[in-house]
Amino acid sequence: MELQHYTEQIVALSQQEDLLQLGRTASELKQQFEDLLIELERQEQVKRLEAADQGNSYEEIDYTPQKEAFFEAFNVFVTKRKAQQQLQQTLETQNLKLKRDLITRLKEVIDNEEKIGTAFQAYKEIHETWKKIGAIPREQRETIQKEYSRLLEIFFYNI
Q1: Structural contact between residues 11 and 73, judged by C-beta atoms closer than 8 angstroms
Q2: DSSP state of 1
Q3: Alpha-carbon dihedral sign for residues 34, 39, 40, 41
Q4: C-alpha distances in angstroms, 2 versus 5, 17, 111, 148?
Q5: How far is the C-alpha of 116 from the C-alpha of 122, rounded, in Å?
Q6: Span 117-153, pLDDT tens digits
Q7: DSSP 20
Q8: Which of 18, 92, 45 lies closest to 26 in space, CA to CA?
Q9: Are 73 and 10 in contact (CB under 8 A)?
Q10: Residues in contact with 140: Cβ distance below 8 Å, sequence separation at least 6, in sequence order
Q11: Rounded Cα–Cα distance for residues 121 and 113 (Å)
Q12: What value does the mean pLDDT take over residues 1-10?
């Protein structure tokens, strides 16, 4: 049955490692499932009305089990995806703190280090660490990058 196919697809999505990029796909599956369900229920109503017009009884197909199975699987997907989003936000916040700490450290090197060799070694360490740190919250990216770039200009101007 086609409804079962949608349930299988949403279960397969839930088993993927990175669910953050699959939100739109899951929403489209949900919409297609709901559209198909509405159409199947409409067809059942038509059959029931036609049977009643002919004086016959008609036992409609109950789609409740398929509907419940799909939405249970969909809710599993949503829960897993939200957990991944929260983890990503936590990591981005931690990364932002690390980058701010590096900016502070670079300021200290600019302000306090008098030996060029030691200052340059500190810059290398800061820069390598900076590159290894992952993503930060999108709304902070430009500000943090501009501040870091500005400090690098000051650093190299002073050397």
Answers
A1: yes
A2: -
A3: positive
A4: 5, 26, 68, 55
A5: 10
A6: 999 999 999 999 999 999 999 999 999 999 999 999 9
A7: G
A8: 18
A9: yes
A10: 96
A11: 11
A12: 91
